[in-house]
Amino acid sequence: MKFSLQLEELAMLLLGLFGFTLLDYSWWWFLILFLAPDFSMIGYAFGNITGAFMYNLFHHRATAIFSYFAGFFLEVPGLQLAGLIIFSHAAFDRLLGYGLKYEQGFKYTHLGTIGKTNTTKFK
């Protein structure tokens, strides 16, 4: 099952890359902005609840899809770009086993616990 889920995330990452090619941006924009959603981890400086909220906001596919379509309908390419970056980054993170965070702490995700005591639900 784990392999199947990783294939699904890889397909979503490729979909995000394809969507990026439809925008009028140089490829280096994607490379530079790809890790930008990880700046949301700064929220953990204010506690686990704020950290989890900020991290999840910038790693949630609904945020990505909403941003992309808002940019599409409002004709704001920057919003489309932000949506594709969030979508692609979230797929990449989940491909590596990093999921949305629970309020208990950074290592507790919807995909299981991160770290040496990994109790990933999908094996």
Structural account:
This protein is mainly alpha-helical and 123 residues long. The protein has one domain (2-32, 45-113). It is 57% helix and 7% strand. The protein contains five helices and three strands; from the N terminus they run αααααβββ. A three-stranded antiparallel beta sheet has the order 1-2-3, covered by helices on one side. Helix 1 (2-21) runs antiparallel to helix 5 and helix 4 runs antiparallel to helix 5 (77-95).
Please specify the SSE layout and strand pairing.
Elements: H1 2-21, H2 27-33, H3 48-57, H4 61-74, H5 77-95, E1 101-102, E2 105-109, E3 112-113
Indicate the structural class: mainly alpha
Radius of gyration: 15 Å
Question: Which band does the percent of strand residues land in?
Answer: 5-15%
How far do the termini sit from each other?
6 Å
Main sheet?
Answer: 3 strands, antiparallel
Uncertain segments of ≥5 residues (pLDDT<50)? none
How helix-rich are the residues, as a percent range? 55-70%
Which tags fit this structure?
3 strands; about 120 residues; 5 helices; three-stranded antiparallel beta sheet; mainly alpha
Summarize the structure.
With 123 residues, this protein is mostly helical. It has five helices and three strands; from the N terminus they run H-H-H-H-H-E-E-E. It has a three-stranded antiparallel sheet with strand order 1-2-3, covered by helices on one side.
